[in-house]
From TrEMBL:
Species the sequence originates in: Stylonychia lemnae
Classification lineage: Eukaryota, Sar, Alveolata, Ciliophora, Intramacronucleata
Segments of skewed composition (Acidic residues): 110-119
The keyword Lipid biosynthesis belongs to this UniProt entry's keyword annotation: no
Protein name: Lupus la
Pfam families: DUF3223, La
Amino acid sequence: MSANQAEIKKQVEFYLSDKNLANDSFFHSKISGNVEHWLDIADILNCNKIKRMGIKEAEIAASLKSSSEVEVSEDGKKVRRVGKKALPELIHKEGQKKRDVKAQSKEEEKGDAEDDTIQLDERGNHILVNADFENPIIIHFKTEAKDGDGFKVNWKEIENEVKQKNPLLKIVYSRADQYEGDLAISSHKLKQVNLEKLTSATLKVQEKNFTFIKTAGEELKDFWQKQGGHYQFCIQPKLRNIKKQQKIAKQQKRDAGTSNDNGSKRAKLSFEIAGVYYTDISKVKSKARAILTIKKDGEKLTGNDEEFIKELIKFHDKHDSKFKDFGHFEAGEHPNYEKTRCFFVVRNDGTKEDFSISKCIMNLEKQSQ
């Protein structure tokens, strides 16, 4: 090992040591905020001592190969304490507590906002980004094996059931054998409580009860050795689609609107609904789909969600009759169409009537042009 590598190794090990993390609130929060306790090497590169070394990400990863205190992720972009060692308690300096409480409050507000503004495409699927495919959480699912019953689980059925029951989890990969299989869940902005909801529950598919267990240790290494190639093969079309969508978005931004008949630019429509600004109609649609996806059957809409739908229903062709004796809104399955969700107006006498939010949004767009 060169002297330079030894110096890098020593410095990074110090950053992740008990001594430093007990006082370093930035690294402490970064590590504790990651489900697998990873720290991005990019954050380390921003440290002044590392900057003065003039090194790159790959050099940090290479210097830690012989470390007994710090391990590197398979993609060479993250580091953590060996064995996901627990963090020391953070020592609050004078005046730090108030700043930390304020920061925590902002982070919680941000987390709530992320849940409320979950991005879905036109088909109701999660809009994925490149970060969703980095260091995913591997979940192994299985059911009781019985000889001769001819049962064979379908990965798509498992994936659909998990998505329906856990709409805040992003599934980026799935595979299945006869009685078991694996899911890859995005760790990007993942909340631990949402993952625990999956691993603590039992889901029924084809009359079989499936359990879900987070893969770790040697079993995790075994998964990547056996299925790593298949994972990379399966995610390539999704990564290409992300690149394609980014290209389209850039083009739309350059166009900055559409042309009128005379060739002049027409300003792109934007909307303010219930005090929230939406840059285009697709964001309005995404917000409506997110509410439908997240809310349980029969769950009453409250707060901003209620105000959002209340503003949109004004654009329904039959607004007056739909809104008569209004009590509140609910989300649930359409009474005439299986596996189709919609909104309901619940009246003061307890009766309820479904309505099409798509028609409301379509009329909003037409009347705004």
